[in-house]
Amino acid sequence: MERKWWHSSVIYQIYPRSFQDSNGDGIGDLRGIISRLDYLEKLGIDAIWLSPVYKSPNDDNGYDISDYQDIMDEFGTIEDMDELIVEASKRSIKIIMDLVVNHTSDEHKWFIEAKKGKDNAYRDYYIWRDPVDGDVPNGLRSTFSGSAWEYDEASGQYYLHLFSKKQPDLNFENEEVRKEIYDMMNFWLDKGIGGFRMDVIDLIGKVPDQEITGNGPKLHEYLQEMNRKTFGNRDVLTVGETWGATPEIAKLYSDPKRNELSMVFQFEHIGLDEQAGKEKWDLQALSIGRLKEVLSKWQTSLGNEGWNSLFWNNHDLPRIVSRWGNDEEYRTESAKMFGILLHLMKGTPYIYQGEEIGMTNYPINDISEVEDIESINMYHERLEKGYSKENIIESINAKGRDNARTPMQWDDSENGGFTTGLPWLHVNPNYQKINVKQSLEDPNSIFYTYQRLIQLRKENPIVVWGDFELVDNTPEEVFAYYRRYEGETWLVIANISEHSSHFSHLDVEPAEVIISNYQRNNARLKDIELQPYEALVVRM
Ligand code: TEU
Ligand code: CA
Fold it and tell me: CA angle, corner 198, sides to 193 and 203, nearest 5?
């Protein structure tokens, strides 16, 4: 496989609204990000995935774009954006933009035109259908509750929106639409960005009339065309968000021979605490056995025909330390354990802002505290269906997206140093204890574990290129694997539980403990007694 910079990189995701406010309006912004670049350089990351910063009425916090070539008023100006690219590049950090082209905002000029009538030149940029029996065209549902079809009084037709009704779906069948998107992508590429994270890209080949949304028949044809017309000859990272990917599907996207994307985000491990066939709100206990199975399947099945991305968190997911770790007694231990377990795997790791200091979920008591459209719509839908208020709030506390969106905790001053004004979303009150300043002062902090993990990847080709092999027959809660490369072997051992456990597979004396989250003495590694959430990596 031809080696690219992104094979050995670590990416840091910024959710701009919640990262750093620079002007006291309570909303994070580009100048705020620029002011924190030194911190990111210290962490050691190679690129920033920037959640959308384009013009937007913010029905879905920037994932509803009204102008792809301009910046959201609250975030700054296009000059600020140019400066961010330059300032980041001075620190060897690339900027990866979020590409949201499954849909636009209903306030995008294309949709404003399209709504003017059936004859409008932009009408076919979107997906319109006549009513069927005086009702919606078919049973397609929106991810944000209710039908995916919205009625337009003026023309008597419905338009498709797989997300909110302020996010009408673009019609990729229309060549003009694709051309406009490619021009826009080239506008950003010409500014010297490091690539694109592609929002719900697996939906662009949809066939609405057959109720096919993900993995439609023309999906890969479109991606190959996009590759040819935009980033194909540039040295950039492209990562598709693909909820429905299996390893076979992931190869279609990321096999270098196919000229599509660098890699995709797959979500199979993320769904393991959800009841099959139900909604993300319907929880079941996580089986560590299944987690091991799923992650090791992804580690071994792509081979040279694809590349993995590695993540526990993003702006749509609850925080891993609260979700599958223990954010009280073992917050530091479990946060480090998840970091070590993930960053020693093969693939490109993504860190979500605040993960590197062990930020936690933010439990709410009432729907009035929620900003996220997905949770709000679900709340009303489930109330109507007869769920109790308590039950719904419990679901939101477990899985709601605002958990990850509370402002970044920089220090122990008011609002955690995020803003001098009123923050757009509540700051987690634990900022007095959990914050960047504290993490930087404590040599044993989660931050320094992440810093070291990034360094290890840079200094050791085995972390990037080594083969992966799961260690079988460990206790259920122990996730252990080997990495092997050019005669060298590393062993990673993690106890995903708040009880002690053991690992007795070492038949050779390990040479060295490379990283761990408890004090470990090299000499006493035979038949290891593992502490709660202990993780360690040894060179054999
Ligand atoms: O997410 C896709 C998506 O399907 C999520 O809404 C997901 O289903 C949900 O959050 C479950 O966890 C992408 C973006 O990451 C998300 O923020 C956007 O809201 C969405 O697309 C629409 O653009
Ligand atoms: Ca601001």
Answer: 160
**Which residue matches tokens 């350089």?**
41
The secondary structure of 479-521 as a DSSP string is: EEEEEEETTEEEEEEEE-SSS-EEE----S--SEEEEESS---
Cα radius of gyration (the chain): 23
389, containing H or E segment = helix 389-399
Q: Determine the pLDDT at residue 524.
A: 64
What is this structure's pTM? 0.98
pLDDT at 523 over 60: no
| Rounded-to-5 percentages of helix, strand, coil across the chain | 35, 20, 45
What is the per-residue DSSP string for 329-380?
TTHHHHHHHHHHHHHTSSSEEEEETTGGGT------SSGGG---HHHHHHHH
Structural contact between residues 59 and 166, judged by C-beta atoms closer than 8 angstroms: yes
Q: Contact, 335 vs 360, CB < 8 A?
A: no
| CA 489-491-492 angle, 5° bins | 145
Q: Is the CB of 169 under 6 A from ligand 1?
A: no
- Average pLDDT for residues 132-141, to the nearest whole number? 98
Q: What is the DSSP letter of 78?
A: H
- Nearest ligand to the C-alpha of residue 19? 2
**Range scoring the smallest mean pLDDT among 207-221, 401-415, 521-535:** 521-535
Cα 496 → chain centroid: 22
Instruction: Report the chain's terminal Cα–Cα distance, integer Å.
Output: 27
Q: Catalytic residue positions?
A: 199, 241
CA dist 355 and 339 (Å) reads 9
Contacts of residue 53, defined as CB under 8 A and 6 or more positions apart, other chains included, come to 16, 30, 62, 71, 72, 75, 76, 81, 97, 98
Residues facing residue 135 across a β-bridge: 132
Contact 13, 350 (CB under 8 A): yes
Q: Quick check: 263 and 306 in contact, CB under 8 A?
A: yes
Q: How far apart are CA 477 and CA 195, in angstroms?
A: 37
CA of 316 to the centre of ligand 1 (A): 6
Confidence of residue 504 (pLDDT cuts 50, 70, 90): confident
- How far, in Å, is the centroid of ligand 1 from the Cα of 389? 24
Minimal-distance CA residue to ligand 1 atom 10: 316
- Choice among 292-301, 307-316, 504-513 with the minimum mean pLDDT: 504-513
The rounded distance, in Å, linking the Cα atoms of 124 and 176 is 9
Ligand 1 neighbour 374 (Cβ under 6 A): yes
Per-residue model confidence (pLDDT) at position 507: 65
46 with 236: CB under 8 angstroms? no
pLDDT of residue 510: 66
pLDDT in tens, 36-47: 999 999 999 999
Q: How far is residue 387 from each of residues 280, 366, 392, 396, measured CA to CA in Å? A: 15, 15, 7, 13
Q: What is the mean pLDDT of the chain?
A: 97
Kindly tell me if the per-residue pLDDT of 508 is higher than 80.
Answer: no
